Amino acid sequence: MNFSPETYLWFKSFHIIGVVVWFAGLFYLVRLFIYHVEVQTQKEEIREVFNKQYTLMEKRLANIITTPGMVLAVIMATGLLYMQPSYLSQAWMQVKLLFVLFLLIYHFYCYRIMNQLTNNQFNFSGQQLRALNELPTLLLVVVVMLVVFKNQFPTSAASWLIFGLILFMAASIQFYAKWRRNKKQLT
């Protein structure tokens, strides 16, 4: 089958849109899990209302935004690879697909968490969920860098400095959240 160059650009455009929607959903979904877990310390009547609301919001977000974004991204990526099968033999694409596999596992793990929260069988703390919420960010950074740099993945000192700054920012966010919680407990 012979595709026009324009067809490739359509696949690529919708792949990027799917990825953006998918990540937006994943970022917000785990944030809802954090709120869902943290409301468990409230009074019974407040907890009941918020549990129902968070369960509804999580299911709608996962089923109406996050999963359709994932499906769109995967279908469009499949179309792109069908049109450019030579990419599959390149190391950067193989590594990218490995990280996408991790992301798919993360996505379905979020469904497991959602079901456990719905059934009051979830035992992670808000802090543990905050750490889990950083994983898709790290996967996103690696995948984007692989796509941009392909086989010339940066390994210079400047690249490691940027990577270090990203890790420092993530650690700072975690530290600030912990500091804020400790300060709140003291008052």
From TrEMBL:
It comes from Prochlorococcus marinus (strain NATL2A). The keyword Nucleotidyltransferase does not apply. GO terms for biological process: protoporphyrinogen IX biosynthetic process. Its main location: membrane. GO terms for molecular function: metal ion binding; protoporphyrinogen oxidase activity. Catalyzes the oxidation of protoporphyrinogen IX to protoporphyrin IX. One of its GO terms (cellular component) is plasma membrane. It catalyses: protoporphyrinogen IX + 3 A = protoporphyrin IX + 3 AH2. Binds 1 heme b (iron(II)-protoporphyrin IX) group per subunit. The keyword Cell membrane applies. InterPro entries: HemJ-like. It comes from the Bacteria. Belongs to the HemJ family. It is found in: Cell membrane. Its EC number is 1.3.99.-. Homodimer. Keywords: Cell membrane, Heme, Iron, Membrane, Metal-binding, Oxidoreductase, Transmembrane, Transmembrane helix. Heme binds at H15, K96. It is a multi-pass membrane protein. The lineage of its organism: Bacteria, Bacillati, Cyanobacteriota, Cyanophyceae, Synechococcales. Pathway: Porphyrin-containing compound metabolism; protoporphyrin-IX biosynthesis; protoporphyrin-IX from protoporphyrinogen-IX: step 1/1. This is Protoporphyrinogen IX oxidase.
